[in-house]
Amino acid sequence: xxxxxxxxxxxxxxxxxxxxxxxxxxxxxxxxxxxxxxxxxxxxxxxxxxxxxxxxxxxxxxxxxxxxxxxxxxxxxxxxxxxxxxxxxxxxxxxxxxxxxxxxxxxxxxxxxxxxxxxxxxxxxxxxxxxxxxxxxxxxxxxxxxxxxxxxxxxxxxxxxxxxxxxxxxxxxxxxxxxxxxxxxxxxxxxxxxxxxxxxxxxxxxxxxxxxxxxxxxxxxxxxxxxxxxxxxxxxxxxxxxxxxxxxxxxxxxxxxxxxxxxxxxxxxxxxxxxxxxxxxxxxxxxxxxxxxxxxxxxxxxxxxxxxxxxxxxxxxxxxxxxxxxxxxxxxxxxxxxxxxxxxxxxxxxxxxxxxxxxxxxxxxxxxxxxxxxxxxxxxxxxxxxxxxxxxxxxxxxxxxxxxxxxxxxxxxxxxxxxxxxxxxxxxxxxxxxxxxxxxxxxxxxxxxxxxxxxxxxxxxxxxxxxxxxxxxxxxxxxxx
Length: 481
Prior knowledge:
Mean pLDDT: 79
Structural class: mainly alpha
Order of helices and strands: HEEHHHHHHHHHHHHHHHHHHHH
Oligomer: single chain
Distance between the termini: 97 Å
Radius of gyration: 34 Å
Number of strands: 2
């Protein structure tokens, strides 16, 4: 009875709000370790696997490849043929099996080429050293190692070699040095080189087959998807920044947390340069797959990425103006809000049209009209900015509270320049963003031309011409008025 009573006892503590909480007993060392491992597995590892199941598949493929090459050690007939050199197949799988097909092909081809060239050259140098006599043999081998290792190391500083063959140059240095040095004490050097080349060839072939045949992950497709996502993120960030600045929080159809998250996605565009360059380098090694040919213009994606970052820099500055403590008076903001929202809306439509064209690899039939709308909106915004001084003085068109505010300004209470400066900066940044979006359009159109995107439908051309004419007439009428 005493044990049962003690097991039902609980400790409580009083909190400032007048309630009490149960005081849980502290867990021991093993309990803390178990909770830590549980949190690590379920909150970190599980989330990574759920977010991208391809990473789990890649891990399975690596384990399968290592299990297969391990048979050269476990199976006696295979071990008798290759001996201890079977370990080179295991090492090859470990160092060349990468996440994407392009990265795996790059390392496999570099390793096979570097090993073959270095092995053949080392055997030739060894033959020359043997013919030169016993005393001259170590000198010839030492000088050859110095010269070829130095030359191969210097080649790694050449940009074209470093970009595509840096790993191959490193393997060349390693293989040539090992074969040249070990050949001085090994009698059957040709047999040793043949066995190592065979095991490395087996390892690289197995990696290529597994990475291309079982759930392949193409670096080219990843780059294409990344650029498409960056264009959409840039459009969302631009729309979110301008909406947050000019619209009241009560009128927003999205929560404040969602809007803040939307305005910050431009940072993903700024931080994607290294990933884009890496994927573009690996994509050049990949064969034809899906909608992408072997000679697909992957470098053009880097130009699009650079243009997107130019826009993202302006959006970053725009976001800093929005969160500035100095804000323009409401009457001035209201005078420019409609024009700024239109520029943002039309610029966002241009970016989304480009994202759709990249995604479908099809030329857009609406991009010209979207650009015209954006340019006209920018022109209207600049006209509204020029008419701002008269707006501060003349207030005949205002009523109610706005008229009272305008009268106050008219009587001499002109807002300080530091208060309206962030608003003028926002206007100029919107015009600059629209101009830089034109650079993105040019880069995407160049990609569409080089990559031979599908043409737009001819039946929409007449509609575009009619719409352009209507917009031009409206703009001329506005200028006349």
